[in-house]
Design goal:
Layout (H helix, E strand, L loop, with lengths): L19 H4 L1 H6 L1 H10 L1 H7 L2 H5 L1 H9 L1
Amino acid sequence: PAPKPRPAPKPRPAPKARPAPKARPAPKAKSTPKAKSADRAKPADEDTGFPDVPADEPGDKEERQGT
């Protein structure tokens, strides 16, 4: 009998335990628009990066300094 075709391998879930993006908020703050796009594309980064991004956003800092 002909060998049965193997089922397609399941896609691996992106690694969520990634301290790298959280460890360096400085580069994220500089390129906020780029960081946001990258974070949205990567769900793994969304969890760890999003909470930090708003606080590091240059816009927020400028508003705080102005007042």
